[in-house]
Protein backbone atom coordinates (compact mmCIF):
# COMPACT_ATOMS: atom_id res chain seq x y z
CA UNK A 1 0.00 0.00 0.00
CA UNK A 2 1.13 3.51 -0.65
CA UNK A 3 -0.16 6.75 0.78
CA UNK A 4 -2.41 8.76 -1.53
CA UNK A 5 -2.51 11.63 0.95
CA UNK A 6 0.38 12.27 3.29
CA UNK A 7 0.92 15.22 5.59
CA UNK A 8 3.70 15.87 8.05
CA UNK A 9 3.26 18.54 10.71
CA UNK A 10 0.97 20.44 8.39
CA UNK A 11 0.20 23.79 9.97
CA UNK A 12 -2.03 26.63 8.84
CA UNK A 13 -2.56 29.81 10.84
CA UNK A 14 -4.92 32.58 9.83
CA UNK A 15 -2.87 35.44 11.22
CA UNK A 16 -3.21 34.99 14.92
CA UNK A 17 -6.15 32.58 14.61
CA UNK A 18 -5.45 28.88 14.84
CA UNK A 19 -6.38 26.92 11.76
CA UNK A 20 -4.63 23.56 12.16
CA UNK A 21 -1.34 22.61 13.83
CA UNK A 22 1.03 19.71 13.23
CA UNK A 23 -1.44 17.57 11.30
CA UNK A 24 0.30 14.31 10.32
CA UNK A 25 -1.84 11.86 8.38
CA UNK A 26 -1.48 9.09 5.81
CA UNK A 27 -4.48 7.99 3.76
CA UNK A 28 -3.67 4.77 1.93
CA UNK A 29 -4.68 3.84 -1.60
CA UNK A 30 -8.20 2.37 -1.70
CA UNK A 31 -9.27 3.54 1.75
CA UNK A 32 -12.41 5.37 2.74
CA UNK A 33 -10.92 7.58 5.39
CA UNK A 34 -13.10 9.57 7.78
CA UNK A 35 -12.12 12.94 9.14
CA UNK A 36 -14.22 13.85 12.09
CA UNK A 37 -14.43 16.68 14.56
CA UNK A 38 -16.77 19.32 15.88
CA UNK A 39 -17.42 22.60 14.07
CA UNK A 40 -14.31 24.74 13.90
CA UNK A 41 -11.95 21.81 14.61
CA UNK A 42 -10.01 22.31 11.38
CA UNK A 43 -11.42 19.80 8.87
CA UNK A 44 -12.05 22.30 6.07
CA UNK A 45 -8.76 24.07 6.72
CA UNK A 46 -6.86 20.79 6.34
CA UNK A 47 -8.72 19.94 3.14
CA UNK A 48 -8.28 23.39 1.60
CA UNK A 49 -4.60 23.31 2.42
CA UNK A 50 -4.26 19.87 0.80
CA UNK A 51 -5.91 21.22 -2.34
CA UNK A 52 -3.74 24.36 -2.21
CA UNK A 53 -6.82 26.55 -2.16
CA UNK A 54 -5.07 28.19 0.78
CA UNK A 55 -1.35 28.28 1.55
CA UNK A 56 0.07 26.25 4.38
CA UNK A 57 2.06 28.07 7.05
CA UNK A 58 4.51 25.18 7.50
CA UNK A 59 4.87 21.42 7.25
CA UNK A 60 4.48 19.06 4.30
CA UNK A 61 1.51 17.94 2.24
CA UNK A 62 1.64 15.37 -0.56
CA UNK A 63 -1.01 13.81 -2.79
CA UNK A 64 -0.08 10.88 -5.07
CA UNK A 65 3.45 11.41 -3.76
CA UNK A 66 3.53 14.92 -5.30
CA UNK A 67 3.91 18.21 -3.49
CA UNK A 68 0.47 19.78 -3.01
CA UNK A 69 1.63 23.30 -3.89
CA UNK A 70 4.30 22.74 -6.53
CA UNK A 71 2.34 20.03 -8.37
CA UNK A 72 -1.14 21.41 -7.77
CA UNK A 73 -2.25 21.37 -11.43
CA UNK A 74 -1.15 17.79 -11.99
CA UNK A 75 -2.76 16.63 -8.76
CA UNK A 76 -6.10 18.34 -9.28
CA UNK A 77 -6.67 16.53 -12.60
CA UNK A 78 -7.17 13.36 -10.62
CA UNK A 79 -9.01 14.72 -7.60
CA UNK A 80 -12.75 15.20 -7.18
CA UNK A 81 -13.67 17.74 -4.52
CA UNK A 82 -17.01 18.51 -2.97
CA UNK A 83 -16.67 21.65 -0.84
CA UNK A 84 -18.81 22.08 2.29
CA UNK A 85 -20.42 25.17 0.83
CA UNK A 86 -21.19 24.97 -2.83
CA UNK A 87 -21.06 28.14 -4.90
CA UNK A 88 -21.89 27.96 -8.56
CA UNK A 89 -22.47 29.92 -11.67
CA UNK A 90 -26.12 30.19 -10.74
CA UNK A 91 -27.49 31.27 -14.10
CA UNK A 92 -26.05 28.21 -15.86
CA UNK A 93 -27.96 24.99 -16.44
CA UNK A 94 -26.44 21.99 -14.66
CA UNK A 95 -25.63 20.30 -17.98
CA UNK A 96 -23.66 23.33 -19.20
CA UNK A 97 -21.72 23.55 -15.95
CA UNK A 98 -20.78 19.88 -16.24
CA UNK A 99 -19.68 20.24 -19.86
CA UNK A 100 -17.59 23.22 -18.84
CA UNK A 101 -16.03 21.26 -15.94
CA UNK A 102 -15.41 18.21 -18.13
CA UNK A 103 -13.49 20.35 -20.64
CA UNK A 104 -10.75 20.82 -18.00
CA UNK A 105 -10.14 17.10 -17.80
CA UNK A 106 -9.96 16.58 -21.56
CA UNK A 107 -12.08 13.44 -21.17
CA UNK A 108 -15.51 12.55 -22.49
CA UNK A 109 -17.49 12.54 -19.28
CA UNK A 110 -20.98 12.61 -20.82
CA UNK A 111 -21.84 8.97 -20.07
CA UNK A 112 -20.84 9.32 -16.43
CA UNK A 113 -22.72 12.64 -16.10
CA UNK A 114 -25.87 10.95 -17.44
CA UNK A 115 -25.49 7.99 -15.08
CA UNK A 116 -24.92 10.19 -12.03
CA UNK A 117 -27.82 12.50 -12.87
CA UNK A 118 -30.17 9.57 -13.27
CA UNK A 119 -28.98 7.93 -10.03
CA UNK A 120 -29.32 11.16 -8.05
CA UNK A 121 -32.50 12.17 -9.88
CA UNK A 122 -31.21 15.54 -10.98
CA UNK A 123 -32.81 17.46 -13.84
CA UNK A 124 -29.75 18.46 -15.87
CA UNK A 125 -31.62 21.07 -17.85
CA UNK A 126 -32.73 23.17 -14.91
CA UNK A 127 -30.89 26.39 -14.09
CA UNK A 128 -28.87 26.05 -10.90
CA UNK A 129 -30.38 29.21 -9.42
CA UNK A 130 -33.83 27.56 -9.58
CA UNK A 131 -32.70 24.49 -7.63
CA UNK A 132 -33.28 23.60 -3.97
CA UNK A 133 -30.30 23.33 -1.61
CA UNK A 134 -30.40 19.51 -1.88
CA UNK A 135 -30.33 19.66 -5.69
CA UNK A 136 -27.45 22.14 -5.62
CA UNK A 137 -25.61 19.64 -3.42
CA UNK A 138 -26.26 16.97 -6.07
CA UNK A 139 -24.72 19.31 -8.66
CA UNK A 140 -21.64 19.49 -6.42
CA UNK A 141 -21.51 15.70 -6.10
CA UNK A 142 -21.74 15.16 -9.86
CA UNK A 143 -19.14 17.83 -10.48
CA UNK A 144 -16.80 16.08 -8.05
CA UNK A 145 -17.26 12.64 -9.60
CA UNK A 146 -17.80 13.20 -13.32
CA UNK A 147 -14.16 12.60 -14.29
CA UNK A 148 -13.91 9.37 -12.24
CA UNK A 149 -11.07 10.75 -10.12
CA UNK A 150 -8.49 8.65 -8.34
CA UNK A 151 -9.02 10.60 -5.11
CA UNK A 152 -12.38 11.94 -3.89
CA UNK A 153 -12.41 14.57 -1.14
CA UNK A 154 -15.81 15.21 0.41
CA UNK A 155 -16.26 18.03 2.92
CA UNK A 156 -19.49 17.49 4.87
CA UNK A 157 -21.17 16.02 1.80
CA UNK A 158 -24.57 15.01 3.09
CA UNK A 159 -25.95 18.29 4.46
CA UNK A 160 -29.09 19.16 2.54
CA UNK A 161 -29.72 15.59 1.31
CA UNK A 162 -32.78 13.73 2.61
CA UNK A 163 -32.16 10.30 4.26
CA UNK A 164 -33.10 8.34 1.14
CA UNK A 165 -30.76 10.40 -1.01
CA UNK A 166 -28.05 10.05 1.63
CA UNK A 167 -28.29 6.28 1.25
CA UNK A 168 -28.03 6.61 -2.54
CA UNK A 169 -25.04 8.87 -2.05
CA UNK A 170 -23.26 6.43 0.29
CA UNK A 171 -23.90 3.56 -2.13
CA UNK A 172 -22.43 5.70 -4.88
CA UNK A 173 -19.31 6.47 -2.86
CA UNK A 174 -18.87 2.77 -2.06
CA UNK A 175 -19.14 2.02 -5.79
CA UNK A 176 -16.55 4.69 -6.61
CA UNK A 177 -14.32 3.15 -3.95
CA UNK A 178 -14.85 -0.32 -5.43
CA UNK A 179 -13.64 0.94 -8.84
CA UNK A 180 -10.45 2.02 -7.08
CA UNK A 181 -11.00 5.56 -5.81
CA UNK A 182 -9.55 6.59 -2.47
CA UNK A 183 -11.96 8.70 -0.42
CA UNK A 184 -11.41 11.34 2.26
CA UNK A 185 -14.69 12.10 3.95
CA UNK A 186 -15.10 14.88 6.49
CA UNK A 187 -18.07 14.98 8.79
CA UNK A 188 -19.23 15.89 12.25
CA UNK A 189 -21.93 13.20 12.07
CA UNK A 190 -20.54 10.09 13.68
CA UNK A 191 -23.07 7.60 12.35
CA UNK A 192 -22.12 8.57 8.77
CA UNK A 193 -18.48 7.83 9.39
CA UNK A 194 -19.35 4.56 11.05
CA UNK A 195 -21.44 3.60 8.02
CA UNK A 196 -18.84 4.07 5.35
CA UNK A 197 -15.26 4.54 6.58
CA UNK A 198 -12.43 2.05 7.16
CA UNK A 199 -10.39 4.35 9.38
CA UNK A 200 -11.01 7.65 11.03
CA UNK A 201 -8.93 10.57 12.24
CA UNK A 202 -10.37 12.65 15.04
CA UNK A 203 -9.45 16.33 15.01
CA UNK A 204 -9.99 18.67 17.91
CA UNK A 205 -8.87 22.29 18.30
CA UNK A 206 -6.78 22.02 15.13
CA UNK A 207 -4.86 18.92 16.19
CA UNK A 208 -5.28 15.23 15.41
CA UNK A 209 -6.08 13.48 18.67
CA UNK A 210 -6.48 9.94 17.34
CA UNK A 211 -6.37 7.82 14.18
CA UNK A 212 -8.07 4.44 14.43
CA UNK A 213 -9.77 1.69 12.48
CA UNK A 214 -13.52 1.96 12.89
CA UNK A 215 -13.90 -1.64 14.03
CA UNK A 216 -11.07 -1.30 16.55
CA UNK A 217 -12.60 1.88 17.86
CA UNK A 218 -15.80 0.03 18.56
CA UNK A 219 -14.03 -2.95 20.08
CA UNK A 220 -11.79 -0.73 22.20
CA UNK A 221 -11.60 -1.43 25.88
CA UNK A 222 -14.21 1.23 26.63
CA UNK A 223 -17.52 0.12 28.08
CA UNK A 224 -20.67 2.12 28.52
CA UNK A 225 -21.96 1.65 32.06
CA UNK A 226 -25.29 2.74 33.42
CA UNK A 227 -27.07 1.82 36.62
CA UNK A 228 -30.09 2.69 38.72
CA UNK A 229 -30.22 2.55 42.52
CA UNK A 230 -33.18 2.22 44.90
CA UNK A 231 -35.02 5.38 45.86
CA UNK A 232 -33.23 7.31 48.58
CA UNK A 233 -29.69 6.19 47.63
CA UNK A 234 -27.28 9.09 47.30
CA UNK A 235 -25.09 8.57 44.22
CA UNK A 236 -23.08 11.78 44.50
CA UNK A 237 -20.10 9.97 46.07
CA UNK A 238 -19.85 7.45 43.23
CA UNK A 239 -16.27 7.38 41.93
CA UNK A 240 -14.08 4.77 40.29
CA UNK A 241 -10.74 5.22 38.48
CA UNK A 242 -11.27 4.99 34.71
CA UNK A 243 -14.81 6.42 34.68
CA UNK A 244 -15.27 9.34 32.30
CA UNK A 245 -18.13 11.62 31.38
CA UNK A 246 -19.97 10.57 34.54
CA UNK A 247 -23.51 11.88 34.59
CA UNK A 248 -25.73 11.41 37.63
CA UNK A 249 -29.41 12.13 37.39
CA UNK A 250 -31.53 11.31 40.44
CA UNK A 251 -31.24 7.58 41.10
CA UNK A 252 -29.47 6.80 37.80
CA UNK A 253 -25.95 7.30 36.55
CA UNK A 254 -24.07 6.61 33.31
CA UNK A 255 -20.46 6.87 32.18
CA UNK A 256 -17.78 5.50 29.87
CA UNK A 257 -15.36 3.16 31.59
CA UNK A 258 -11.87 1.90 30.85
CA UNK A 259 -10.16 0.41 33.85
CA UNK A 260 -10.18 -2.42 36.39
CA UNK A 261 -13.51 -4.20 36.21
CA UNK A 262 -13.12 -5.49 39.79
CA UNK A 263 -12.78 -1.95 41.10
CA UNK A 264 -15.91 -1.04 39.15
CA UNK A 265 -17.90 -3.93 40.62
CA UNK A 266 -16.69 -3.13 44.14
CA UNK A 267 -17.80 0.49 43.78
CA UNK A 268 -21.14 -0.54 42.28
CA UNK A 269 -21.58 -2.98 45.19
CA UNK A 270 -21.67 -0.06 47.64
CA UNK A 271 -25.08 0.98 46.29
CA UNK A 272 -28.49 -0.71 46.54
CA UNK A 273 -28.87 -1.29 42.82
CA UNK A 274 -32.00 -2.22 40.93
CA UNK A 275 -30.37 -2.37 37.51
CA UNK A 276 -26.92 -2.35 35.83
CA UNK A 277 -26.06 -2.24 32.12
CA UNK A 278 -22.52 -2.73 30.83
CA UNK A 279 -22.42 -2.53 27.04
CA UNK A 280 -20.22 -1.65 24.07
CA UNK A 281 -20.26 2.12 23.76
CA UNK A 282 -21.60 3.76 20.61
CA UNK A 283 -19.12 5.71 18.51
CA UNK A 284 -20.85 8.82 19.80
CA UNK A 285 -19.95 7.93 23.37
CA UNK A 286 -16.37 7.08 22.43
CA UNK A 287 -15.93 10.35 20.58
CA UNK A 288 -17.46 12.35 23.41
CA UNK A 289 -14.56 11.14 25.47
CA UNK A 290 -12.09 12.56 22.94
CA UNK A 291 -14.02 15.79 22.56
CA UNK A 292 -14.27 16.45 26.26
CA UNK A 293 -10.69 15.59 27.21
N1 LIG B 1 -10.68 32.36 6.47
C1 LIG B 1 -10.46 32.25 7.76
N2 LIG B 1 -9.96 33.29 8.48
C2 LIG B 1 -9.72 33.19 9.81
N3 LIG B 1 -9.96 32.06 10.53
C3 LIG B 1 -10.48 31.01 9.88
C4 LIG B 1 -10.76 31.04 8.48
N4 LIG B 1 -11.25 29.82 8.11
C5 LIG B 1 -11.28 29.07 9.24
N5 LIG B 1 -10.81 29.78 10.31
C6 LIG B 1 -10.65 29.28 11.69
O1 LIG B 1 -9.91 28.08 11.64
C7 LIG B 1 -10.42 27.12 12.56
C8 LIG B 1 -10.77 25.83 11.84
O2 LIG B 1 -11.91 26.07 10.99
P1 LIG B 1 -12.42 25.03 9.91
O3 LIG B 1 -13.47 25.70 9.08
O4 LIG B 1 -11.27 24.41 9.24
O5 LIG B 1 -13.11 23.94 10.83
P2 LIG B 1 -14.04 22.73 10.44
O6 LIG B 1 -13.60 21.59 11.28
O7 LIG B 1 -14.07 22.53 8.98
O8 LIG B 1 -15.44 23.20 10.97
P3 LIG B 1 -16.80 23.48 10.19
O9 LIG B 1 -17.48 22.15 10.11
O10 LIG B 1 -17.50 24.43 11.13
O11 LIG B 1 -16.44 24.09 8.87
C9 LIG B 1 -11.61 27.79 13.25
O12 LIG B 1 -11.15 28.32 14.47
C10 LIG B 1 -12.00 28.90 12.30
O13 LIG B 1 -12.56 29.98 12.99
Automatic annotation (TrEMBL):
Sorted UniProt keywords = ATP-binding, Nucleotide-binding, Transport
Q: Where would one find coiled-coil regions in this protein?
A: none
Please give one Gene Ontology molecular function term for this protein.
ATP binding
Alphabetized InterPro entries for the sequence: AAA+_ATPase, ABC_transporter-like_ATP-bd, ABC_transporter-like_CS, ABC_transporter_ATP-binding, P-loop_NTPase
Pfam families from the entry? Answer: ABC_tran
Q: Which residues form the ABC transporter domain?
A: 5-230
Gene3D superfamilies for the chain: P-loop containing nucleotide triphosphate hydrolases
Family membership noted in the UniProt record: Belongs to the ABC transporter superfamily.
**This protein is called what?**
ABC-2 type transport system ATP-binding protein
Give the lineage: Bacteria, Bacillati, Bacillota, Clostridia, Eubacteriales
Amino acid sequence: MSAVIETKNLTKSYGRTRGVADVSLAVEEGEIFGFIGPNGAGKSTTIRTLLSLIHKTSGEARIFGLDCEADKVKILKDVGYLPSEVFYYDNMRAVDLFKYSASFYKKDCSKKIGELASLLQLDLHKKIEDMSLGNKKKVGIIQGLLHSPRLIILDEPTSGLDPLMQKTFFDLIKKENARGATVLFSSHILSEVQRICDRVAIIKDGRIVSVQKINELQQSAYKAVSFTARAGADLRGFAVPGAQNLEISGQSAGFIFKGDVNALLTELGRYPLVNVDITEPTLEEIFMHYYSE
